[in-house]
Amino acid sequence: MDVRHYMQQLGQQAREASRAIAAADSGVKNRALLAIAEAVDAARSEIIAANEQDLAAGRANGLDAALLDRLALNSAGVDGVIEGLRQVAALPDPVGAISDLNYRPSGIQVGKMRVPLGVIGIIYESRPNVTVEAASLCLKSGNAAILRGGSEAINSNQALAACIRTGLAAAGLPMTTVQVLETTDRAAVGELITMPDYVDVIVPRGGKGLIERISRDASVTVIKHLDGICHVYIDDHADADKALAIAVNAKTQRYGTCNTMETLLIAERRAAELLPPIGEQMSAAGVELRGCARSCELLPQAVAATEEDWATEYLAPVLSVKVVADIDAAMDHIRQYSSGHTESIVTENYTLARRFLREVDSSSVMINASTRFADGFEYGLGAEIGISTDKIHARGPVGLEGLTSQKWVVFGDGHIRG
Amino acid sequence: MDVRHYMQQLGQQAREASRAIAAADSGVKNRALLAIAEAVDAARSEIIAANEQDLAAGRANGLDAALLDRLALNSAGVDGVIEGLRQVAALPDPVGAISDLNYRPSGIQVGKMRVPLGVIGIIYESRPNVTVEAASLCLKSGNAAILRGGSEAINSNQALAACIRTGLAAAGLPMTTVQVLETTDRAAVGELITMPDYVDVIVPRGGKGLIERISRDASVTVIKHLDGICHVYIDDHADADKALAIAVNAKTQRYGTCNTMETLLIAERRAAELLPPIGEQMSAAGVELRGCARSCELLPQAVAATEEDWATEYLAPVLSVKVVADIDAAMDHIRQYSSGHTESIVTENYTLARRFLREVDSSSVMINASTRFADGFEYGLGAEIGISTDKIHARGPVGLEGLTSQKWVVFGDGHIRG
């Protein structure tokens, strides 16, 4: 296969289809989403059989248990895919919404209309349900999509791609609105991220290594999510109960997510009172503690943290703990080590809460809430294509709106400029 | 001079200063802007003398009249610079504005806060007043700036930079909040656009060649404005008076601006009635006409347009004219040749107006208005750092808001995720 030629063809087809999907009204897009759901339901046994092929190949290739787990798509997983499609169909359509429409002194009326970006390229790893999730968000936001899933999920992804095509055709939309790569050749990724004529934005989902590689090599804008080194700072004026609840929840509610707290910062004046009970609950949950010198005095179970610990996203039951002088020292530490994902302060002090909110430069900044809330569903976006740690275009959880842009619209009545 | 070392130092200083300016309140920023205005007024004779040095050097180097004209900064020009600073001081401060703050079912309250981007690099050509204009917009939006003006304006720019530093210091802000390059070495541009650790976004202002080169080589996001090949389409259902007024204004009100019409499209059924009077007014204004075969039949003064004409931004008293079958043919032509800047339809037909508005994929889409309105001031932005022909982050005229991003803010009361 000539990969470059193949990708160029996909790109041209996507660009062509992007015009039809951009002009499609909400009813047509929702019919397509529901028709895809029906097609997935009807093809349930084929999808599961294809997934079993992938799992068997994965086991033969020695994939580890975590990877096999992410790859697996059983009947309950298929139900989840169907439910996800119905949820996206139920979301409001962002396309065409006009805002800030005002008359200007010249007499023209000026506003902004939300419009699709065009063609979105999505590069992801093992989980096959991302194929349908990404397709549904692109479709609803009026974009064409080119999807490149993990090579280990190729059979599952092709089975799902067939259902997507069936649904698109049923709604009268071009089947090329969503194209799933049929090759596992890695060169295809290199082509996808360097076709600015055909692709408007790339959303990579996966490990930090993959995302850094794609960002470095892409000539197309990348909406990227690097890592989540999230902090909770327990301030002098923290309520003890809230501090304990938030610290424990932010670390232990789930370990492998990017919005999990990786470092706990605590004001010196509250450390002796609050670190021992927090440490106790962390240890009871099986969390390993790595502390600064002062933390280790107060937490006998802690080991000494190294410089590297402060800069590590553990994604595991490990927590680094540091006692700091005050909010300034806490914000200095955050500035130095945070990945700019999510930080939370626990305090009852109005002025310090306000300072933290304004001065901390992360995609989510919280007061008296668990970092685990940093999520598109919790924020009311209805769905999430990813979380951006960039500042340009989209920041934090990215929903349908993040896949759109705004153009200016001007209504006149023969107006000319004087 | 070691250019790399020099630029790294500027970058580090800008990053450091960006924290102070991001935290500065509106009053401090406005005091700085007004103090810069005072410093410019006080240094009026030094600025004009420096500019005369640049002009003399330019004449000696054989710069053409248009370039010398853009380079010139006389006393009236200095008044314009001062007035611009006062206008930016009077604009509302975008930083810190919280929007869409809503309670979620979990009990947390979620919203978005507008925040500065960080450090903006601006690369521009001969006009020295851009130095102060760009500095004022970055400052007001809470960003640090690194400015690289044209080498032919180096003395003027340094004189203005001294005033900017004076004003910043008077307001207690770091003088490194705005840094104007002291070297004309071209290698400095290459460094500036490849320092993602120190620069968050690049705004190039200048010719298409400069911008394409910067976009190609930058590793930092570029808010770019390529060209403006703008169209007016006179539809079957156009009001004749509006069509005539808009076509003439869109072409002749100014020739060298990016929002000037370069191609007039007209529906076949109205061509015989409307092209002759439009052509007459264009010819009277000294506009050369280049037409399709049908246009040339109706416009004896027109010459035949070549394929290249449809794709050319003339920036001059030249207009290409094409007779099309209907709105679909017009939109096909726009899709193929437009640079995505601004297009306008002249029609009294509700349905066609609505289709044009939705389907044309340009940064400004207008109904019954002159393309010349596509401008930050006319749109009410108060100021304009440039016009973006990109879809990502900022589209169309870019004002203070385009130099900001939004972070999520979450207010809780000890909330944890269940």
From TrEMBL, chains A, B:
It is an enzyme of class 1 (oxidoreductase). Its EC number is 1.2.1.41. It catalyses: L-glutamate 5-semialdehyde + phosphate + NADP(+) = L-glutamyl 5-phosphate + NADPH + H(+). Residues 12-284, 307-375 form the Aldehyde dehydrogenase domain. The keyword Cytoplasm applies. Its main location: cytoplasm. It is found in: Cytoplasm. InterPro entries: Ald_DH/histidinol_DH, Ald_DH_C, Ald_DH_N, Aldehyde_DH_dom, G-glutamylP_reductase_CS, Glu-5-SA_DH, GPR_dom. Pathway: Amino-acid biosynthesis; L-proline biosynthesis; L-glutamate 5-semialdehyde from L-glutamate: step 2/2. Pfam families: Aldedh (PF00171). Belongs to the gamma-glutamyl phosphate reductase family. This is Gamma-glutamyl phosphate reductase. The gene is proA.
